[in-house]
Amino acid sequence: MKKLTRYFLEGLLLLVPLAATIYVAYAILRKIDSIFEFKIPGVGFLVTILTITVVGFISSSLLTKRLMNFIDRTITRLPFVKMIYTAVRDLMNAFVGDKKSFNKPVLVKLSPGSNVHVIGFLTRESLENIGHADKVAVYLPQAYNFSGNLIIVSREQVIPLDVESGDIMAFIVSGGVATH
After folding, report:
1. What is the model's pLDDT at position 105?
2. DSSP line for 50-111
3. What is the pTM of this model?
4. N or C: where does the chain have the smaller number of CB atoms within 10 Å of the terminal CB?
């Protein structure tokens, strides 16, 4: 009976992540296809990828950059819209923009003299702009979640890590179980 239970659990370990991944990919493809009302599965996804690529190509020209800067300035003047737009824009830039923010993984001692540490990303090396030049900002992503916490600590509590940012993010988001 123990072998049968072990085989069942091993089957779960293989099939659940695979099935969940296939289901999420399928749901995304169906949703995108339903937006465009294509009858051939996957065409909506291809149209979306092509559209994003073409917009990226067009936005790389000097004339379009000026237009995008104008749109950016206009949107950031609208009270409620500004909050949503800038948060999403900054988050996207943190991962894929020219100014990637999550590129300095660090180990943070939660309190001086403590042996408890957390892993995060140094996002500001000085908080002089808010009157705390001796403090740094560290973003702590949460496991299995698209959120995190921003903590402010003394510079002395931060130890830089010589590890790829992507590997650290995978380690944190997986709850510490990802190996690379």
Report:
1. 87
2. HHHHHHHHHHTSHHHHHHHHHHHHHHTTSHHHHHHHHHHHHHHHHHHSTT-SS--EEEEESS
3. 0.55
4. N
